[in-house]
Predict the structure.
Amino acid sequence: MPDLDITGQIRSIIHTGSGYVDPGAVCSGYHDGESVGVNSTGTVDPSTSGTYTVTYECMDGHGLYATDTRTVVVIDENTPPEIHVTYQRPSIPRSGGDYSSDAICIDREDGNISNLVTSSVSFSGDAATITYSYTDSYGTTATTSRAAKVLGDAPPTLVMRGQSGASVLEGSPWSDPGAYCTDDKDGTFDAFSRGTVDTSTLGTYSISYMCVDSSGHSDGTVRTVTVKPAATNLYPVLLLSSDEVHTGVGGSFSLPSATCTDHEDGSLPYEVDSDDIHGVDTSRPGVYWVVYYENSAGNLSVDAVAINVNP
């Protein structure tokens, strides 16, 4: 078989209107290496896009035959590459970054060249635009872009330590437990506060807390602290509806109702001494005492009712 060699590339790509000259092929005889003429069939129309095939044939003096083909692809002028964003990145830091791996690119001339895509980021306030681009080997550029949020768009969240409404006795020490903030960009940091509490002076005081993140977003809240008179916390007030009850020998009796109130804590439950109740002997005339008390805060309040068993 003769040795048939195509001159140049066996597959080439040209733009419409660029012109095309077939570089041809050479052939040499198998036995003697003598140059043999080459015939070609097929034409290329550089004005019309499409795929063309040029076939080369040769036959040496011994009747041996060889053939090969060249493919020529004619594409439209200025056909851009195609970029597709495969990962819709929801948010990015304000410092930006390289996001070219979020996209793939296919080009008719250069094939899959995703690794050559470049990216750039522009910012407008708290919004960002990511632009992807690629310029192919013929100088044709393709771009596409998408929007993304900038990390830190959400405002911080302020968390108050302790209760939002607090009370302290006059003259007692009080320490502000403070507050802190959490932010999707800046993490956790202490809030700053404004306001003081003077425990030597009765009244209601406000402590304001505020935090501002690096994007300028803020959050705030207020704690109310009431300074109450110290004396009001000494004892709850225990009042009976009656201070004595009368019954006859062998009769029955009912204990009077009572209320117990505290300046700080409001209404409080009270207890009745069960031993006193059991100690009332209605079979014998006399006066028996039943004690009521409240001691939940360590400040004991006591009152009693006289049970009179009459002859």
